[in-house]
Amino acid sequence: MPEEVIRVENLVKTYKPVVAVNSISFTVKEGEIFSLVGPNGAGKTTTVEILECLRTPTSGKASVLGYDVTHDEKEIKKRIGAMPQDFSAFERLTVRENVELIARIYQVDPDLRSVLEELGMWEARDRRFESLSGGMKRRAGICMALISNPVLLFLDEPTTGLDPQARKETWDVIRRLRSMGKTVVLTSHYMEEVEQLSDRAAVIYGGEIIAQGSVDELISAYGGGIRIRVSPYNDEIERVLMETAQKVVREDSSIEGVFHDRIQVGRTLAALYGQDEKYHLDIVEPSMDNVFSRLAGGRVDERGELI
Length: 307
Fold this sequence. Notes:
six-stranded mixed beta sheet, 14 strands, Alpha-Beta Plaits
Protein backbone atom coordinates (compact mmCIF):
# COMPACT_ATOMS: atom_id res chain seq x y z
CA MET A 1 0.00 0.00 0.00
CA PRO A 2 1.23 3.56 -0.71
CA GLU A 3 2.57 5.39 2.30
CA GLU A 4 0.77 8.38 3.78
CA VAL A 5 2.64 11.58 3.01
CA ILE A 6 0.12 13.87 4.73
CA ARG A 7 -2.04 13.21 7.78
CA VAL A 8 -4.50 15.81 9.07
CA GLU A 9 -6.49 15.19 12.24
CA ASN A 10 -9.19 17.50 13.60
CA LEU A 11 -7.44 20.56 12.19
CA VAL A 12 -8.86 23.94 13.21
CA LYS A 13 -7.90 27.46 12.17
CA THR A 14 -9.77 30.47 13.52
CA TYR A 15 -9.51 34.17 12.86
CA LYS A 16 -11.80 35.38 15.61
CA PRO A 17 -14.70 35.28 15.24
CA VAL A 18 -14.37 33.44 11.90
CA VAL A 19 -13.68 29.70 11.83
CA ALA A 20 -11.80 29.24 8.55
CA VAL A 21 -11.11 25.51 9.01
CA ASN A 22 -13.37 23.53 11.31
CA SER A 23 -12.01 20.21 12.62
CA ILE A 24 -11.11 18.59 9.29
CA SER A 25 -9.34 15.25 8.86
CA PHE A 26 -7.89 13.57 5.78
CA THR A 27 -4.83 11.76 4.49
CA VAL A 28 -2.85 11.98 1.26
CA LYS A 29 -1.09 8.92 -0.12
CA GLU A 30 2.25 8.76 -1.91
CA GLY A 31 2.05 9.20 -5.68
CA GLU A 32 -1.55 10.38 -5.90
CA ILE A 33 -3.25 13.60 -6.95
CA PHE A 34 -5.43 14.65 -4.03
CA SER A 35 -7.82 17.56 -4.44
CA LEU A 36 -9.50 19.92 -2.03
CA VAL A 37 -12.53 21.16 -3.95
CA GLY A 38 -14.99 23.87 -2.99
CA PRO A 39 -15.95 27.52 -3.54
CA ASN A 40 -13.98 30.60 -2.60
CA GLY A 41 -13.75 31.00 1.16
CA ALA A 42 -14.30 27.30 1.85
CA GLY A 43 -10.96 26.90 3.65
CA LYS A 44 -8.91 25.29 0.87
CA THR A 45 -6.04 27.79 0.79
CA THR A 46 -5.90 28.08 4.58
CA THR A 47 -5.54 24.31 4.84
CA VAL A 48 -2.77 24.19 2.25
CA GLU A 49 -0.90 27.09 3.84
CA ILE A 50 -0.92 25.28 7.18
CA LEU A 51 0.56 22.21 5.47
CA GLU A 52 3.18 24.45 3.83
CA CYS A 53 4.05 25.88 7.28
CA LEU A 54 2.90 29.36 6.25
CA ARG A 55 0.17 29.47 8.90
CA THR A 56 -0.06 28.00 12.39
CA PRO A 57 -3.10 25.85 13.22
CA THR A 58 -5.30 26.87 16.13
CA SER A 59 -5.70 23.24 17.18
CA GLY A 60 -5.54 19.73 15.84
CA LYS A 61 -2.63 17.89 14.24
CA ALA A 62 -1.04 17.84 10.79
CA SER A 63 2.08 16.08 9.56
CA VAL A 64 3.80 16.30 6.17
CA LEU A 65 6.24 13.57 5.14
CA GLY A 66 6.32 12.46 8.76
CA TYR A 67 7.16 15.93 10.13
CA ASP A 68 4.91 18.00 12.36
CA VAL A 69 3.81 21.30 10.81
CA THR A 70 4.15 23.19 14.10
CA HIS A 71 7.66 21.99 14.98
CA ASP A 72 9.46 20.89 11.81
CA GLU A 73 9.03 23.82 9.42
CA LYS A 74 12.56 23.67 7.99
CA GLU A 75 12.43 19.94 7.29
CA ILE A 76 9.06 20.23 5.55
CA LYS A 77 10.00 23.25 3.43
CA LYS A 78 13.15 21.49 2.19
CA ARG A 79 11.03 18.66 0.81
CA ILE A 80 8.02 20.35 -0.78
CA GLY A 81 7.32 22.57 -3.76
CA ALA A 82 4.45 25.04 -4.07
CA MET A 83 2.69 27.26 -6.57
CA PRO A 84 0.37 29.65 -4.71
CA GLN A 85 -2.95 30.88 -6.05
CA ASP A 86 -1.54 34.37 -6.63
CA PHE A 87 1.66 33.05 -8.22
CA SER A 88 3.85 35.54 -10.04
CA ALA A 89 7.47 35.77 -11.15
CA PHE A 90 9.91 38.48 -12.20
CA GLU A 91 8.27 39.81 -15.34
CA ARG A 92 11.44 41.04 -17.04
CA LEU A 93 13.48 37.91 -16.34
CA THR A 94 13.39 34.98 -18.72
CA VAL A 95 11.93 31.59 -17.83
CA ARG A 96 15.46 30.24 -17.38
CA GLU A 97 16.48 33.15 -15.13
CA ASN A 98 13.41 32.80 -12.93
CA VAL A 99 13.96 29.07 -12.49
CA GLU A 100 17.71 29.55 -11.82
CA LEU A 101 16.85 32.15 -9.17
CA ILE A 102 14.73 29.61 -7.28
CA ALA A 103 17.54 27.05 -7.62
CA ARG A 104 19.97 29.49 -5.98
CA ILE A 105 17.51 30.15 -3.15
CA TYR A 106 17.29 26.40 -2.49
CA GLN A 107 21.06 26.08 -3.01
CA VAL A 108 20.64 23.27 -5.54
CA ASP A 109 22.28 22.62 -8.89
CA PRO A 110 19.49 21.01 -10.92
CA ASP A 111 19.43 19.58 -14.41
CA LEU A 112 17.64 22.65 -15.71
CA ARG A 113 17.13 21.32 -19.21
CA SER A 114 15.57 18.11 -17.93
CA VAL A 115 13.03 19.98 -15.80
CA LEU A 116 12.08 22.42 -18.56
CA GLU A 117 11.87 19.72 -21.21
CA GLU A 118 9.70 17.52 -18.99
CA LEU A 119 7.07 20.26 -18.80
CA GLY A 120 7.46 21.50 -22.38
CA MET A 121 9.21 24.77 -21.50
CA TRP A 122 12.70 24.27 -22.96
CA GLU A 123 11.88 26.09 -26.20
CA ALA A 124 10.55 29.04 -24.18
CA ARG A 125 13.53 29.18 -21.81
CA ASP A 126 14.84 32.52 -23.12
CA ARG A 127 11.49 34.26 -23.32
CA ARG A 128 10.71 36.93 -20.74
CA PHE A 129 8.06 35.90 -18.25
CA GLU A 130 5.93 38.93 -19.18
CA SER A 131 5.65 37.68 -22.79
CA LEU A 132 4.15 34.30 -21.86
CA SER A 133 0.50 33.35 -22.15
CA GLY A 134 -1.43 32.61 -18.96
CA GLY A 135 -1.04 28.86 -19.42
CA MET A 136 2.71 29.15 -20.08
CA LYS A 137 3.12 31.30 -16.98
CA ARG A 138 1.49 28.59 -14.85
CA ARG A 139 3.72 25.99 -16.48
CA ALA A 140 6.78 28.10 -15.67
CA GLY A 141 5.52 28.35 -12.10
CA ILE A 142 5.31 24.57 -11.84
CA CYS A 143 8.88 24.34 -13.17
CA MET A 144 9.97 26.71 -10.41
CA ALA A 145 8.15 24.57 -7.83
CA LEU A 146 9.90 21.46 -9.19
CA ILE A 147 13.44 22.78 -9.34
CA SER A 148 14.40 21.58 -5.85
CA ASN A 149 13.18 18.07 -6.77
CA PRO A 150 10.45 17.95 -4.10
CA VAL A 151 8.55 14.74 -3.45
CA LEU A 152 5.33 16.66 -2.74
CA LEU A 153 3.82 19.62 -4.61
CA PHE A 154 1.04 21.98 -3.58
CA LEU A 155 -0.80 23.64 -6.48
CA ASP A 156 -3.35 26.18 -5.24
CA GLU A 157 -6.01 26.92 -7.90
CA PRO A 158 -3.49 26.33 -10.73
CA THR A 159 -5.89 27.05 -13.61
CA THR A 160 -7.95 29.95 -12.28
CA GLY A 161 -8.51 32.55 -14.99
CA LEU A 162 -7.18 30.43 -17.85
CA ASP A 163 -9.11 29.88 -21.06
CA PRO A 164 -10.40 26.32 -21.67
CA GLN A 165 -7.52 25.32 -23.95
CA ALA A 166 -4.83 26.59 -21.56
CA ARG A 167 -6.64 24.88 -18.69
CA LYS A 168 -6.54 21.50 -20.46
CA GLU A 169 -2.85 21.98 -21.32
CA THR A 170 -2.16 22.64 -17.63
CA TRP A 171 -4.05 19.45 -16.78
CA ASP A 172 -1.63 17.55 -19.02
CA VAL A 173 1.29 19.06 -17.09
CA ILE A 174 -0.24 18.06 -13.75
CA ARG A 175 -0.78 14.50 -15.01
CA ARG A 176 2.89 14.43 -15.98
CA LEU A 177 3.85 15.27 -12.41
CA ARG A 178 2.20 12.06 -11.26
CA SER A 179 4.07 10.08 -13.94
CA MET A 180 7.28 11.62 -12.56
CA GLY A 181 6.49 10.03 -9.19
CA LYS A 182 5.39 13.24 -7.48
CA THR A 183 2.53 13.51 -5.01
CA VAL A 184 0.28 16.47 -5.80
CA VAL A 185 -2.15 18.32 -3.54
CA LEU A 186 -4.45 20.41 -5.69
CA THR A 187 -7.04 22.99 -4.70
CA SER A 188 -9.71 23.92 -7.18
CA HIS A 189 -13.23 25.24 -7.56
CA TYR A 190 -13.55 23.63 -11.00
CA MET A 191 -15.51 20.40 -10.59
CA GLU A 192 -14.51 19.12 -14.02
CA GLU A 193 -10.85 19.69 -13.19
CA VAL A 194 -11.12 17.62 -10.03
CA GLU A 195 -12.97 14.90 -11.92
CA GLN A 196 -10.33 14.79 -14.65
CA LEU A 197 -7.23 14.82 -12.44
CA SER A 198 -7.90 13.46 -8.99
CA ASP A 199 -7.29 10.02 -7.56
CA ARG A 200 -9.12 11.15 -4.43
CA ALA A 201 -10.85 14.35 -3.40
CA ALA A 202 -12.31 16.05 -0.34
CA VAL A 203 -15.27 18.38 -0.80
CA ILE A 204 -14.80 21.33 1.55
CA TYR A 205 -17.53 23.86 2.30
CA GLY A 206 -17.82 26.39 5.12
CA GLY A 207 -14.50 25.22 6.54
CA GLU A 208 -15.69 21.62 6.86
CA ILE A 209 -15.04 18.52 4.78
CA ILE A 210 -18.51 17.29 3.88
CA ALA A 211 -17.45 14.27 1.80
CA GLN A 212 -14.26 12.58 0.66
CA GLY A 213 -13.15 9.55 -1.32
CA SER A 214 -12.20 8.61 -4.85
CA VAL A 215 -13.98 10.52 -7.61
CA ASP A 216 -15.90 7.37 -8.56
CA GLU A 217 -16.94 6.82 -4.94
CA LEU A 218 -18.16 10.41 -4.59
CA ILE A 219 -20.11 10.31 -7.85
CA SER A 220 -21.63 6.94 -6.98
CA ALA A 221 -22.67 8.09 -3.50
CA TYR A 222 -23.79 11.66 -4.21
CA GLY A 223 -24.10 12.09 -8.00
CA GLY A 224 -27.80 11.29 -8.12
CA GLY A 225 -27.56 8.37 -10.53
CA ILE A 226 -27.51 7.89 -14.29
CA ARG A 227 -30.42 9.46 -16.15
CA ILE A 228 -32.11 8.23 -19.31
CA ARG A 229 -34.19 11.01 -20.90
CA VAL A 230 -36.64 10.21 -23.71
CA SER A 231 -38.67 12.66 -25.79
CA PRO A 232 -41.33 12.38 -26.95
CA TYR A 233 -42.60 9.36 -25.06
CA ASN A 234 -45.58 7.02 -25.19
CA ASP A 235 -47.31 4.69 -22.76
CA GLU A 236 -44.95 1.79 -23.56
CA ILE A 237 -41.80 3.86 -22.96
CA GLU A 238 -43.30 5.09 -19.69
CA ARG A 239 -44.08 1.50 -18.68
CA VAL A 240 -40.48 0.38 -19.34
CA LEU A 241 -39.06 3.20 -17.22
CA MET A 242 -41.61 2.68 -14.45
CA GLU A 243 -40.59 -0.98 -14.22
CA THR A 244 -36.83 -0.45 -14.27
CA ALA A 245 -35.91 3.00 -12.92
CA GLN A 246 -35.50 3.95 -9.26
CA LYS A 247 -37.22 7.25 -10.02
CA VAL A 248 -39.25 8.59 -12.94
CA VAL A 249 -39.71 12.29 -13.70
CA ARG A 250 -42.28 13.39 -16.29
CA GLU A 251 -42.29 16.70 -18.11
CA ASP A 252 -44.58 18.05 -20.85
CA SER A 253 -42.90 16.26 -23.76
CA SER A 254 -40.22 14.12 -22.11
CA ILE A 255 -39.74 11.50 -19.43
CA GLU A 256 -36.65 10.74 -17.42
CA GLY A 257 -35.63 7.63 -15.52
CA VAL A 258 -32.97 7.72 -12.79
CA PHE A 259 -30.80 4.63 -12.22
CA HIS A 260 -28.16 3.66 -9.66
CA ASP A 261 -27.34 0.33 -11.35
CA ARG A 262 -25.45 0.31 -14.66
CA ILE A 263 -26.63 -3.22 -15.44
CA GLN A 264 -30.22 -2.02 -15.18
CA VAL A 265 -29.37 0.92 -17.43
CA GLY A 266 -28.18 -1.52 -20.10
CA ARG A 267 -31.36 -3.63 -19.83
CA THR A 268 -33.54 -0.54 -20.02
CA LEU A 269 -31.77 0.73 -23.12
CA ALA A 270 -32.20 -2.64 -24.81
CA ALA A 271 -35.94 -2.51 -24.07
CA LEU A 272 -36.23 1.06 -25.32
CA TYR A 273 -34.29 0.41 -28.50
CA GLY A 274 -36.89 -2.25 -29.33
CA GLN A 275 -39.62 0.36 -29.59
CA ASP A 276 -40.99 1.15 -33.06
CA GLU A 277 -41.83 4.74 -32.19
CA LYS A 278 -39.45 7.52 -33.18
CA TYR A 279 -37.96 9.33 -30.21
CA HIS A 280 -34.80 11.08 -29.02
CA LEU A 281 -32.85 9.46 -26.18
CA ASP A 282 -30.14 11.04 -24.00
CA ILE A 283 -27.99 9.34 -21.37
CA VAL A 284 -26.82 11.79 -18.71
CA GLU A 285 -23.92 10.60 -16.54
CA PRO A 286 -23.55 12.09 -13.05
CA SER A 287 -20.54 14.32 -12.41
CA MET A 288 -18.74 16.16 -9.63
CA ASP A 289 -21.01 19.12 -10.38
CA ASN A 290 -23.95 16.95 -9.31
CA VAL A 291 -22.01 15.80 -6.25
CA PHE A 292 -21.32 19.33 -5.05
CA SER A 293 -24.84 20.52 -5.86
CA ARG A 294 -26.41 17.73 -3.81
CA LEU A 295 -24.01 18.19 -0.89
CA ALA A 296 -23.95 22.00 -0.72
CA GLY A 297 -27.27 22.96 -2.27
CA GLY A 298 -25.77 25.07 -5.03
CA ARG A 299 -23.11 25.16 -7.73
CA VAL A 300 -19.84 27.02 -8.11
CA ASP A 301 -19.46 29.50 -10.95
CA GLU A 302 -16.38 30.25 -13.06
CA ARG A 303 -15.11 32.78 -10.49
CA GLY A 304 -15.41 30.26 -7.64
CA GLU A 305 -18.51 31.81 -6.08
CA LEU A 306 -21.36 29.68 -4.75
CA ILE A 307 -24.61 30.38 -6.60
